[in-house]
Write a structure and sequence with these properties.
The complex is a heterodimer of chains A (302) and B (254).
Chain A lengths: L5 E5 L2 E5 L2 E7 L2 E3 L3 E5 L6 H8 L10 E3 L2 E2 L4 H5 L2 E4 L11 H11 L4 H10 L15 H13 L5 E5 L7 H16 L4 E6 L2 H7 L2 E6 L2 E7 H6 L3 E7 L2 H10 L4 E4 L2 E5 L3 H13 L4 E8 L2 H9 L2
Parallel strand pairs in A: 5-10, 5-11, 8-9, 9-10
Antiparallel strand pairs in A: 1-4, 1-6, 2-3, 6-7, 11-12, 13-15, 13-16, 14-15
Helix pairs in contact in A: 3-4, 4-5
Chain B lengths: L1 H14 L3 H23 L1 H7 L3 H35 L3 H4 L6 H37 L11 H14 L1 H13 L4 H16 L13 H11 L2 H28 L4
């Protein structure tokens, strides 16, 4: 049997807080060596999904596989190859940055060189002796990421990793993520409510809204779907409307402007022929590309 | 076992510079210093009483500790150990470590027991140090005429065991509640209730009274009963420590 390339796989993942269904039959597929962006508005269920993935919450059915193994039955084995940062970083304010990492390094039997290395990766080498209580929120976020990277995990799960970072910090972390994925072969699952962030680094995207997955695929797929539209300006809106209805086109109309879904160049050509054959006057016809932002809003505000 | 030791070492790093470690030394030091000064300055008064100075000083120390200091110390340390995690919201981090939850829980229990042991050991050491200094500086107190080492060490040992009931209950409260007011406030109310009802015949069923019973037994020699109270306290602590573990197991980090 061919080994699965999926690092994370959920099968109809469902979770409720009391009577409130917060995760509704989610099927996630995250491939090895990809950067998967888990996108959704605040309160969509991103953090709950992540907590289910790392076994902090338990679904009634064992419907999560990580590294092709059931999360509940193989919790410790999976956690040994996984690093996660959920919500804000968990740091001890009374300890230095170095000691915050050391207390974790001891558990993983890692030496001080590894601590220095990850502090350097996130740009905190010079602040290693400083108490975390004196850190800015951006520095704390970097240290939280360093803590995740400390054990050199195969799968990195980050919940809103660029929270609190300044623009240059965001760029650095993005570059670090790309480096970890492309040069070190890591699989990265990161959640965000910022489309721009996902767009810049992710290879694959899952969009969650009200606990349901509304899109899953590559970033190119996301760009493709329903992203192009045809915009037609006509002098005879009534006649064009009548024709489009008769031919069962899906469209929206605002006075003399019609918006139709773009399907292909061939179908556009056929439509033009059809309009011309009915002698309907056309002022302009063009394809317009919706931004991903528009698409995201459309997908998540149903 | 090596994994458990690594988890415990990690706990010891987290405990660095926390108040729990500090008060384990500081409280015994303050009590011993005050007693030393009182005995040094007012030695004539104590000499005039004509009793064994070990028992006299021991009674003072054990009364203070048994009634208020030891229970308060246990309230604070149980709070500090768990508050370190509550404040940094690190439960989600701890439970995503590739370590059994039992190791994490037991390392915390062991840490607090180590602190408590340091507290008792420091108290005992400083008691003997004070007595030795007083014996040298105020020979009139005649510490050298009596040998009460066994009695003192035995009472400190009993005091150590007598705190386990309080320790386990406060530890349970401090896991359950993430603030200062509820676990420490409730513990404080229990201490006050113990003081008010200390002559009630069933007060021994309430673990907060056990250190007080030990301190009283130092002079009243109610040894036989004390053993049962201590055993009962240990049983209560086992129940609450196990209960705390099950609470952690059931808890979902929302």
């Amino acid at each position: 049997m061919k080994p699965s390339k999926l690092v994370i796989e959920t099968n109809q993942l469902t979770y409720s807080y009391g009577n409130s269904l917060v995760i509704d039959n989610i099927d996630l597929s995250v491939e090895k060596n990809s950067i998967y962006g888990f996108l959704g508005p605040n309160g969509a269920g991103k953090t709950t999904t992540i907590k289910l993935l790392v076994a902090l919450l338990h679904s009634r059915r064992n419907s999560i596989k990580i590294f092709n193994k059931d999360v509940v039955a193989n919790r410790l084995e999976i956690l040994s190859k996984l690093g996660s940062l959920i919500e804000e970083p968990s740091l001890y304010d009374h300890l230095s940055a170095f000691d915050n990492l050391r207390q974790k390094a001891i558990i993983f039997n890692l030496d001080n060189k590894r601590i220095d290395h990850v502090l350097e990766l996130v740009g905190l080498k010079l602040s290693s002796k400083k108490k975390v209580g004196e850190f800015s929120s951006g520095m704390k976020q970097r240290l939280g990421i360093a803590k995740v990277l400390l054990s050199d995990p195969e799968l990195i799960i980050l919940d809103e990793p660029t929270n609190g970072l300044d623009p240059s910090g965001m760029i650095e972390i993005r570059e670090l993520m790309k480096h970890l994925c492309h040069e070190c072969g890591k699989t990265i699952f990161l959640s965000s409510h910022l489309l721009g962030e996902i767009e810049k680094i992710c290879t694959d995207v899952g969009i969650i809204s009200n606990g349901k997955i509304v899109f899953q695929g590559s970033l190119n797929d996301l760009n493709e779907i329903n992203n192009k539209q045809l915009e037609i300006f006509t002098g005879e809106p009534e006649r064009l409307k009548e024709l489009l209805l008769k031919m069962e086109y899906d469209f929206s109309q605002k006075e003399n402007k019609f918006i139709l879904c773009y399907i292909s160049d061939q179908s556009t050509s056929k439509l033009i022929e059809l309009i011309c054959s009915h002698s309907i006057s056309i002022y302009s016809l063009r394809t317009i590309e919706k931004s991903l932002e528009d698409l995201f809003v459309k997908l998540t505000t149903k | 076992m090596t994994l458990f030791i690594r988890v415990l070492r990690s706990e010891l790093i987290k405990a660095k510079r926390t108040k729990g470690f500090l008060i384990s030394f500081l409280i015994p030091l303050i009590i011993s210093t005050i007693l030393f000064i009182v005995y040094y300055v007012k030695y004539e008064y104590f000499v005039s009483m004509g009793v064994n100075p070990w028992v006299l000083m021991g009674t003072n120390v054990f009364r203070i500790m048994g009634l208020i200091v030891l229970p308060m110390y246990l309230l604070l340390t149980a709070y500090i150990v768990n508050f370190t995690e509550h404040r940094s919201k690190s439960r989600k981090d701890l439970f995503t470590l590739p370590v059994p939850k039992f190791h994490i829980y037991m390392s915390k229990v062991l840490l607090i027991v180590i602190w408590y042991f340091i507290f008792i050991l420091t108290s005992c050491f400083l008691f003997f140090l004070s007595a030795a200094l007083l014996s040298f500086l105020r020979p009139e107190l005649s510490f050298e005429d009596y040998d009460s080492n066994y009695l003192i060490i035995k009472t400190f040992s009993q005091l150590f065991v007598s705190g386990f009931g309080i320790l386990s209950i406060q530890f349970f409260f401090s896991i359950y509640w993430d603030d200062f007011i509820r676990p420490v406030g409730l513990g404080f109310v229990f201490i006050i209730v113990t003081i008010l009802l200390n002559s009630w015949k069933y007060i021994y069923l309430f673990p907060y009274s056990h250190p007080f019973y030990v301190s009283r037994s130092f002079t009243t020699y109610m040894d036989e009963k004390i053993i049962y109270y201590l055993l009962y306290g240990v049983l209560v602590s086992i129940v609450f420590f196990i209960g705390g573990y099950f609470m952690i197991l059931q808890d979902e980090t929302k």
